[in-house]
Design goal:
With about 575 residues, the protein is α+β, with helices and mostly antiparallel strands. Helices cover about 50% and strands about 20% of the residues. It has 12 helices and 17 strands. It starts with a helix and ends in a 16-residue tail after the last strand.
């Protein structure tokens, strides 16, 4: 009954909370969009710029080293010879000079012997941070092990500002490593060329040496372990948060674009907390508002549902008192008008139905008398000619029966009273048929005080007399009254030729459908009276007897004289 009210409250909750929920979701989506735009995409653009710049530097350095090596091959001679011969050194520098133009400010060239000593170059000595290098220097060893490939790494002092990008290749003479070509680019020059100044960046070589102006100091110029990757991730380092993405650029180098996000995430957390607080604050406010606004309407709807539920069960007097503020005054007025109209209509229909039933019962009762009277008068007409004394006796008996039958003030009588009428009726019939008519009764004595409809037997007995003769014209009729499980059962049997099975079936179907078949008017009248007075569980059944003849079974409720039902059991059996 309260399903509609619950749905109303749910709808109010949903549409009240929906704006707050949408505001919260919109705020979260704005945060996500801001993160994507200002962090993820900007970081990716910066990383792409760095990768492109470093790859350009590496490719340019590889071409320069390759062209310098080719110039050395055009002027054969060992590194030692070039070191001793000043003219030869000048020629080498003249040939190499075009490779040392101004495209890379600070780029210097050095030709080293196999001990790492400067033989020729842009400057007479290596930068101070690289002067301690010797033949044990790992970079020289790696160039010696892979003379066909250019090697690159970061070297120099621990501070990032003293770092250098080294690119070089071994020089071979007679199949042996005779020296090294070395290009040196200061880290500061590389930073000025590549950095946009908007974000931090890290350039790592294969030994985790670090370059570029990252905002955090590190021990020995090494990148922290949390940054040693090339995947996008949120990194926590030194009580700060960074969004870092990386990419390999060849020669063992990795570029990391690092975006500080501590402050941004703090603002996001604060914004999310405010949205959550707003949502938590609005829920009880909305709840109180919804309950206050819906309480009156829900109560009115409850009363309306209860009123119509009562009407559904037949209670037309259930009051309906709706709240004035509910806006349902029109509904209350319509309900009251409807119930008044329905009560009046039901009262009229009930009176009309009762009048209709009484009228039909009286009509059915009146139909018995003409049949009975006609047949009896016919008998008297014959008896007057044959035996006037017998005719007078029949007239007296008929007058008694008529007084009993025409008393319309009584519709239910005791079984004993109706049996007395039946016996008078059968006595008249026996005077007509003489010895050809035999009538017997089997009556349970306890049933004599049961109440039954008046004149309920006579039409069935009349049919038995009319159609119950056997092939020799003899008529044998029996009347049995006994108790069933919870009904009073009255059987009227004859031993005549009876009806065939199709006729019996058609007659029973007509009785079940309560169709008025004039051919079987007597049986139909009994059945119709019983149904009108007691309902569908009761009525008449017709069947053919196994030994011949017809049986008419009247099923009635057990009603004692005081008007109360009684337990029957197997009484009188």
């Amino acid at each position: 009954m309260h399903q509609f009210q619950d749905e109303l409250r749910q709808a109010l909750w949903k549409y009240a909370l929906l704006p707050v929920l949408l505001l919260t979701v919109a705020g979260l989506l704005l945060m996500v969009g801001s993160w994507q735009h200002y962090v993820v995409k900007d970081n990716a653009r910066h990383r792409t710029q760095l990768v492109s710049g470093i790859e350009t530097v590496m490719e340019d350095g590889a071409r320069r080293v390759e062209r310098i090596g080719n110039q050395l091959e055009k002027s054969p001679g060992s590194i030692e010879k070039i070191q001793r011969d000043g003219k030869r050194r000048a020629e080498i520098m003249a040939a190499v000079y075009p490779e040392l133009d101004n495209t890379d400010a600070g780029l210097t060239f050095y030709l080293l012997d196999n001990q790492g000593k400067v033989v020729a170059g842009s400057r007479q000595q290596l930068p101070p941070e690289l002067q301690d290098l010797s033949e044990e220097w790992g970079f020289l060893q790696r160039m010696g092990r892979s003379p066909a490939e250019m090697q690159a790494e970061l070297a120099g002092g621990s501070p990032r500002t003293n770092r250098y990008l080294l690119m070089g290749k071994a020089v071979k003479t007679a199949g042996q490593v005779d020296g090294f070509i070395l290009l040196v680019l200061p880290g500061e020059a590389l930073q000025n060329r590549l950095m946009s100044g908007k974000q931090d960046a890290i350039l790592l070589d294969q030994f985790d040496n670090l370059l570029f102006p990252w905002s955090q100091q590190t021990a020995a110029g090494k990148a922290p372990a949390v940054f040693r990757h090339n995947k996008a991730s949120l990194v926590h380092y030194d009580q700060q948060l960074y969004y870092a993405t990386g990419r390999d650029v060849g020669h063992g180098f990795t570029v990391l674009a690092v975006t500080p996000v501590t402050n941004l995430l703090s603002r996001y957390v604060l914004g999310a907390a405010l949205l959550l607080a707003l949502f938590i604050l609005m829920v009880p406010i909305i709840g109180v508002s919804v309950l206050r606004e819906s309480r009156g309407k829900a109560k009115s709807i409850d009363e309306l549902v209860e009123a119509f539920a009562a009407v559904k069960t037949g209670n037309w007097t259930h009051p309906l008192n709706l709240q004035p503020a509910s806006g349902l005054a029109v509904v209350q007025e319509a309900y009251e008008h409807m119930t008044r109209s329905l009560q009046e209509l039901m009262r009229k229909n009930e009176e009309e139905a009762k009048a209709s039933v009484i009228s039909e019962i009286r009509q059915l009762e009146s139909q018995f008398n003409p049949h009975f009277l006609f047949n009896t008068l016919e008998n008297i007409k014959f008896m007057v000619k044959l035996d006037s004394d017998a005719a007078m006796s029949m007239i007296k008996s008929l007058s008694k029966l008529l007084r009993y039958s025409i008393n319309n003030t009584v519709r239910r009588v005791k079984l004993a009273d109706d049996l007395a009428y039946v016996r008078g009726y059968m006595e008249i019939q026996q005077r007509r048929f003489g010895n050809r008519l035999v009538y017997q009764e089997q009556i349970d004595p306890q049933s004599l005080s049961c109440e039954i409809p008046k004149l309920i037997f006579q039409p069935a007995l009349e049919n038995a007399v009319k159609y119950g003769a056997d092939a020799k014209g003899r008529i044998a009729i029996s009347l049995q009254v006994e108790f069933g499980r919870d009904t009073l059962q009255i059987r009227i049997q004859d031993r005549g030729r009876g009806m065939d099975v199709p006729t019996i079936s058609r007659l029973q179907a007509l009785l079940d459908s309560e169709a008025n078949d004039s051919v079987h008017m007597g049986v139909y009248n009994i059945h119709r009276r019983i149904r009108l007075m007691y309902g569908k569980p009761y009525g008449v059944q017709v069947k053919q007897r196994e030994g011949g003849g017809t049986e008419v079974l009247l099923v009635l409720p057990i009603i004692w004289e005081e008007g109360k039902h009684a337990e029957t059991g197997n009484r009188g059996r």
